[in-house]
Structure formats: structure tokens, C-alpha cells
């Protein structure tokens, strides 16, 4: 099991990241999503609450260049399911689930982002919490080693997650030009502490220059009630 603190503090640019798992005491489903940025356009954002989910929002309108890949709803809730993604495929999954499609089926209509030469992977997660039971899925859609002519699709399912354990996926292996896409299975990481301790650890571990916003939610598996923390570099 890897240390999230170590994974983040030793990587200046993991890009955007999703962590899903279970609290150490086994009572909470845990999800975290963070965004980072190298450009003025990417850094000019904050997370704001929208319904039971969140949306990215421009911080300074005068600095907004292109909203297409930076303004979206990373988190949406559909009944007992929580969707978290790094782009507008959150809506794709939400609408697919409404039509009776599976997580994987809904994402069949999408592929990596059209931002060559990076071709940023689309990373997604779906948490299912119902009747005291909890499972989750994760997805990575990426170019074939930087070749945009092919999309490689990976879906991972986690039933009855272990307490104090989570999975971590992020868009980039590290900083670079072009940015190297995430490789391998979701990383097994430790989840420790309450929501404030976990959120603070994540925020402090992210690169100071590149971090933009963080969302953390702890969902009570028995009741479905949740606590949320949002930290924005802009405006804090």
C-alpha cells in the first residue's frame, strides 16, 4: 500500500487525480478529486458547490482563454451513486445511468481529451452506496502511447472495499512535454484520518505552484449522509 502523501509530494505534476476508497474505521466511503494547472487558463479556477455535486468555475473572468476543457462538473450525484471525473464525461455517465446503461457502456461514447500532443486521459469513478453496501468502479480512457488513432479503455471494479484502503488514478505520470499519460492499474493507497485530516494531508502534499482546487467527501455507508470539504487556492 502506497503513501498518498509520498506519491503526491514527490510528483510535481500528476495533473488531475481521483482517490476512492473507505475510511480506516470502515464506516465511510471516501472520495477525493483534485485539479492542478501549468497554464494561466488552467490555474484560473475554483470549485463551487452545485446541487449535491461540484462545478469548476472561472476565478477571474478577464483571464479566461478557453473554457472547453477546464469548465465542467467533476462530481454529480444520481440517487445512491456518486460520479467523479476529470471532465464533462461526468454528464455522459450521469445521462447513461439514467438510460439504464452501465458505467462502462456510458463511457463507450467518449475517449481521451482532444488536446494533442498530450491527449490527456479521461479518468472517471463511480461509487455505489445502497442498503449499507458499498462498491466502486474506476475508468481510464487513454491514447495508445500518444497515438490518437486508438483509444485504450480500462475499467476496474472494487467490491466490498477494505477499510483504510483506496485506489488512486491521475492523468499524468509526471511533468513533461508532452505530458506522459497515467500508466498501469489504479494505485493502492492508504486512507487515514477523518475528513479534515485527510483533506489537509492531500492539499499540503500537492505541489504548491501547480495545485488549484481539492474536493473531499466522506459518505456514511449506513445512512448515505455525507460531509464535504472544498479547498481552493484562488480566493482562500
Going by helix content, strand content and strand pairing, the class is alpha+beta
Mind telling me which CATH architecture this is?
4-Layer Sandwich
CATH topology: Glutamine Phosphoribosylpyrophosphate, subunit 1, domain 1
| Overall 3D shape | globular
Number of helices: 5
> What's the mean pLDDT score?
96
SSE order, as H and E? HEEHEEEEHHEEEEEHEE
Describe this structure in words.
The longest helix has 11 residues, at 195-205. It is globular, with a radius of gyration of 16 Å. It has one domain (4-232): 4-Layer Sandwich (Glutamine Phosphoribosylpyrophosphate, subunit 1, domain 1). With 236 residues, it is α+β, with helices and mostly antiparallel strands. Helices cover 15% and strands 41% of the residues. Strands 11-10-1-2-12-13 form a six-stranded antiparallel beta sheet, with helices on one face. The mean pLDDT is 96.
Task: Give a concise summary.
It is built from 5 helices and 13 strands.
Outline the fold blueprint:
Elements: H1 4-9, E1 17-22, E2 28-36, H2 40-43, E3 45-50, E4 53-58, E5 75-78, E6 81-85, H3 89-98, H4 103-107, E7 122-130, E8 133-144, E9 147-159, E10 165-170, E11 187-190, H5 195-205, E12 211-220, E13 226-232
Antiparallel strand pairs: 1-2, 1-10, 2-12, 3-4, 5-6, 6-7, 7-8, 8-9, 10-11, 12-13
Amino acid at each position: 500500500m502506497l503513501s498518498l502523501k509520498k506519491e503526491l509530494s514527490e510528483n510535481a505534476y500528476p495533473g488531475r487525480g481521483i482517490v476512492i476508497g473507505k475510511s480506516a474505521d470502515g464506516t465511510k466511503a471516501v472520495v477525493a478529486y483534485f485539479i492542478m494547472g501549468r497554464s494561466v487558463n488552467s490555474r484560473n479556477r475554483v470549485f463551487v458547490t452545485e446541487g449535491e455535486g461540484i462545478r469548476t468555475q472561472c476565478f477571474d473572468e478577464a483571464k479566461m482563454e478557453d473554457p472547453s476543457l477546464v469548465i465542467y462538473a467533476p462530481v454529480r450525484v444520481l440517487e445512491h451513486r456518486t460520479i467523479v471525473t476529470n471532465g464533462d464525461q461526468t454528464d455522459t455517465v450521469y445521462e447513461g445511468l439514467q438510460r439504464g446503461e452501465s458505467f462502462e457502456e456510458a463511457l463507450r461514447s467518449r475517449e481521451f481529451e482532444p488536446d494533442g500532443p498530450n491527449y490527456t486521459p479521461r479518468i472517471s469513478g463511480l461509487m455505489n452506496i445502497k442498503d449499507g453496501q458499498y462498491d466502486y468502479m474506476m475508468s481510464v480512457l487513454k491514447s495508445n502511447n500518444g497515438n490518437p488513432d486508438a483509444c485504450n479503455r480500462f475499467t476496474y471494479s472494487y467490491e466490498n472495499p477494505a477499510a483504510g484502503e483506496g485506489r488512486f488514478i491521475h492523468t499524468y505520470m509526471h511533468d513533461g512535454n508532452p505530458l506522459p499519460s497515467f500508466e498501469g492499474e489504479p494505485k493502492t493507497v492508504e486512507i487515514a484520518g477523518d475528513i479534515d485530516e485527510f483533506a489537509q494531508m492531500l492539499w499540503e502534499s500537492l505541489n504548491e505552484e501547480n495545485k488549484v482546487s481539492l474536493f473531499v467527501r466522506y459518505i456514511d455507508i449506513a445512512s448515505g449522509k455525507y460531509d464535504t470539504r472544498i479547498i481552493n487556492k484562488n480566493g482562500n
